[in-house]
Design goal:
The protein contains 17 helices and no strands. It is globular and about 55 Å long. The protein starts with a helix and ends in a 9-residue tail after the last helix. It is mostly helical and 426 residues long. Helix 9 packs parallel to helix 12, helix 11 packs across helix 13 and helix 12 runs antiparallel to helix 13.
Length: 426
């Protein structure tokens, strides 16, 4: 797979226009790696919470704690990680991260086979996965800026989202069938294998990145410099606040949506997997049209539209009855979330990268990830608590209403509303 997929995408790229990003060999390898790891990630996205919900009979509060454990490393490690990333080469960090994730994911079926699997084990796995995403995920975002010109970042993020969405269309149905055949724990071995293949493809990327050691480097001073840069940019502060609230809503809904599908709507593992195809369709639509919408109405308003789509989806699911109508509402919510999340992130990522000078990219990326994920942990815990105390619909209703209010407020903030083009670094 590590050789076949890049060759196949190379042949397809020959059919594309001469100025298409996939014509570039380095970006094509990066895109192929994202496609493979995203496909495997669909298995983990279903198998890990299904292992907790169905095999270990987790409560809504425990599901919230599991999600919070995945988020905690972002809050703990993001800022120092950014300082470190600005001093090292990013691509090797990305490759090691993909390999480490493979072994962490494979530990779940191993623990199940040995009879050790319990919620504390999943909490540890979630924390380690979050730690790898904190470090290697930040490195991956910077690698993209080393491969793609800054003026084409929205296009690159849209194509990356298209790779992920292609996996999201085919992956959930495959994951649902696989989980039904071999069980959720063993299905995670598929993701482990694909992560190793992704790491092998990434090793073939050539990036010219020379890091000159700085004689007067100082960790805490450099960390403060990154935070000061973000604080001094009105656009970055506004983006951090808006996307932070969206993350709170997203995680409040995320911790209960599989429980809601399985326990309230009565869907089987396979039916849940097939419903997640709706999210793939939504991300395809967002990826194909997101760049065009952003160019037409501006990246700020396109971001706000993404908030609104997600809010409507969560609100509809909160009102959905059991039965076929409820099943359709679950798939529709996933479709709207997929499209809305793509609109949020292709513009959010491009805007924050466009406004930042290259020497500060690592610290800006980690600071922004830290800021937007601080509300995610409390959102996950709040979603679990609301689901346990007032019912699962309460968590979804809270997420939907808050996201719609966020869209309304963001549409009135001038620094977001008036953005028509990508800014340039000072």
């Amino acid at each position: 797979m590590t050789q076949w997929l890049p060759r196949f995408t190379s042949r397809l790229a020959g059919l594309l226009p001469r100025d298409d990003l996939l014509r570039q060999a380095a970006y094509r390898r990066l895109w192929s790696s994202i496609l493979i790891s995203s496909f495997g990630g669909q298995v983990t996205m279903l198998a890990l919470p299904l292992t907790a919900a169905l095999l270990l009979h987790a409560s809504p509060t425990q599901m919230g704690l599991l999600t919070a454990m995945e988020i905690a490393p972002f809050v703990l490690f993001s800022l120092p990680c950014g300082v470190w990333l600005d001093r090292v080469r990013k691509l090797p960090v990305y490759v090691v991260g993909e390999s480490a994730l493979a072994f962490v994911v494979a530990s779940v079926p191993l623990a199940w086979w040995l009879g050790w699997l319990a919620m504390p084990w999943l909490y540890v796995v979630g924390f380690v996965i979050g730690s790898v995403y904190t470090i290697a995920g930040s490195a991956a975002q910077i690698v993209l800026t080393q491969v793609v010109p800054r003026e084409r970042l929205v296009e690159a993020h849209a194509k990356n989202a298209l790779a992920s969405s292609g996996a999201e269309v085919a992956g959930p149905g495959f994951a649902g069938v696989l989980i039904r055949l071999v069980g959720a724990p063993l299905a995670l071995l598929v993701d482990a294998a694909m992560l190793l293949a992704s790491a092998a493809i990434l090793r073939g990327i050539v990036v010219d990145e020379r890091r000159e050691p700085c004689a007067d480097a100082h960790f805490w001073r450099d960390l403060r410099a990154g935070v000061r840069f973000v604080r001094g940019q009105r656009l970055l502060v506004a983006l951090a606040c808006a996307v932070g609230v969206w993350q709170m809503c997203h995680h409040a809904a995320l911790v209960v949506q599989i429980l809601f599908a399985a326990r309230t709507l009565g869907l089987s593992e396979q039916a849940i997997g097939l419903s997640y195809t709706g999210m793939g369709v939504g991300t395809v639509l967002g990826s194909v049209w997101g760049g065009r919408i952003s160019r037409r109405i501006g990246p700020g308003r396109c971001l706000t539209l993404g908030f609104a789509l997600c809010g409507v989806g969560w609100g509809l699911l909160a009102l959905a009855p059991a039965g076929r109508l409820g099943s359709a509402a679950f798939a529709l919510m996933l479709l709207m979330f997929g499209a809305g999340a793509v609109l949020v992130f292709i513009n959010f990522l491009a805007l924050r990268q466009a406004v930042t000078p290259e020497p500060l990219l690592g610290r800006m990326t980690s600071t922004m990830r830290w800021l937007i994920l601080i509300p995610a942990g409390p959102g996950a815990l709040l979603g679990g608590w609301l689901g346990e105390q007032f019912g699962l619909r309460a968590s979804l209703g809270f997420a939907g209403a808050t996201a719609l209010l966020l869209a309304l407020v963001a549409s009135r903030v001038a620094v977001i509303r008036d953005l028509r083009d990508l800014p340039v670094p000072e």
